[in-house]
Write a structure and sequence with these properties.
Number of domains: 1
Structural class: mainly alpha
Radius of gyration: 30 Å
Number of strands: 0
Oligomer: single chain
Helix content: 55-70%
Largest sheet: none
Length: about 120
């Protein structure tokens, strides 16, 4: 490679007044403050899901196929002190988690080892 010198023009910038920048920092709106709270976002998602659940259960109107959210939460609260009921809910939750895990593994396909 050859040593070629490139001439570049010099840039001289003048300092601007701070008033020329406009709004640098502005207070957040109430909506932005609420949205920045992860707990509030998660609670809103749960409320929306519960509402969808309740509407869907009302449309089906078949508690054996898809029960109402309010009935399910009420029965869980009533059975909270009963050890057998608590154990049954735990088994149901474990079964649901296992089903989700199997679904994820099935989507990934068999494990392949790199050589």
């Amino acid at each position: 490679m050859s040593n070629v010198q490139v001439r570049r023009s010099e840039f001289i910038r003048e300092k601007l007044e701070t008033s020329a920048f406009g709004v640098v920092e502005k207070p957040l709106t109430a909506w932005e403050r609420i949205y920045n709270q992860s707990a509030a976002r998660k609670a809103a998602i749960l409320v929306v899901l519960a509402a969808i659940w309740e509407v869907y259960a009302s449309v089906l109107d078949n508690p054996l196929l898809f029960s109402h959210f309010q009935r399910d939460t009420g029965s869980i609260r009533e059975c909270a002190g009963d050890r057998r009921a608590t154990r049954a809910h735990l088994v149901l939750a474990q079964g649901a988690a296992d089903g989700l895990r199997r679904r994820v593994v099935a989507r990934r396909g068999p494990h392949r080892h790199r050589d």
